[in-house]
Specification:
This protein has a single domain, classed as 3-Layer(aba) Sandwich (Rossmann fold). Helix content is 31%, strand content 17%. It contains eight helices and ten strands. The strands form two sheets. The chain has an eight-stranded mixed β-sheet with strand order 3-4-2-5-1-6-7-10, sandwiched between helices. A two-stranded antiparallel ribbon has the order 8-9. A hairpin with a 6-residue loop joins β8 and β9. α1 packs across α8 and α3 crosses α4.
């Protein structure tokens, strides 16, 4: 791979024309189902009548295309961020899948291909690609972040106007601790924290319907960063959601009215209300 620096600068935060709200979905920790939440939340927002897009900002392990049934096998010979004028018009057409507009580095390189840009280029690549996509009119653009701090989060926070952040976690103490660290990053940048989504929150027995807590949790403990942040939804652990991933047909498209679908629709209602209040 060859990497070129884009020497253009942005004096003010980037506002994408036609997009009402840009939301980042973050975790601070891998393995909590952040991308699964992103995809199903996007479909839930769409089901509520909104126009929605997904931007996969994880350049090291982009999973959004696979979850949506899109696979690329041909490797890219080179991937070069192009030097462009600050006000150059967008030109990349996003993929449309299940009615969602989607862009990901996983649409540009092979599924098994590894790209390894220097840290100084990672944020630049993400922000420039975000800017160069022809998104059109969207109510919500969900940005699926990699499970880490540093880039590309730093450049996104510095250069893009964000409407809010949603933090995804599981009930475990360590996951909550990492979620708190991720949340603090956005809070320090002045991004509104819309709430926490607790994924794999509990298990419902398919035979008896009884609810079980799979992960041991400390009911009285939350890291200081999460102390005043509301839990806006608890998504149960059921086989349907992983089956949807394996079929590349997400739960909110295939079975939107099961208990997990109800959880995502409830989260959607809270987010829309929060954003309406913030905008007002």
């Amino acid at each position: 791979m060859v990497w070129l620096n884009n020497t253009s600068t942005m004096n003010t935060k980037l506002l994408l024309p036609g997009i009402k709200h840009i939301l980042v979905i973050a975790s601070g920790k891998g393995g909590v189902g952040k991308t699964t939440v992103t995809v199903n939340l996007a479909l839930a927002l769409q089901r509520s009548g909104a126009s929605v897009g997904i931007f996969d900002a994880d350049i090291y392990g982009p999973n959004v295309p696979r979850m949506l049934g899109v696979r690329r096998y041909k490797e890219s010979e080179a991937f070069v961020p192009v030097l462009r004028r600050v006000h150059a018009p967008a030109y990349i057409q996003p993929l449309t899948r299940f009615g969602l507009k989607v862009m990901s580095v996983g649409l540009l390189v092979a599924e098994q291909q590894v790209i390894n840009p220097p840290a100084s280029a990672a944020g630049q690549l993400v922000v420039q690609t975000l800017k160069d996509v022809v998104w059109g009119e969207l109510d919500y653009l969900l940005v699926d972040l990699p499970p880490s701090a540093g880039q590309p989060q730093e450049d996104l926070l510095r250069l893009v106007q964000l409407s809010g952040a949603v933090i995804v976690t599981t009930p475990q103490d360590l996951s909550l601790l990492d979620a708190g660290r991720s949340l603090q990053l956005f809070r320090d940048a002045g991004v509104p924290i819309l709430g926490v989504v607790e994924n794999m929150s509990y298990f419902v027995c398919p035979g008896c319907g009884e609810r079980h807590e799979i992960f041991q949790r400390s009911q009285q403990w939350r890291p200081p960063a999460l102390a005043d942040v509301p839990v806006i939804g608890r998504v149960p652990l059921l086989p349907e959601i992983s089956q949807g991933i394996n079929r590349a047909d997400p739960l909110m498209h295939q079975q939107p009215e099961n208990v997990q679908g109800e959880a995502f629709m409830a989260i959607t209602a809270v987010l829309r209300e929060q954003l309406s209040i913030n905008s007002g």
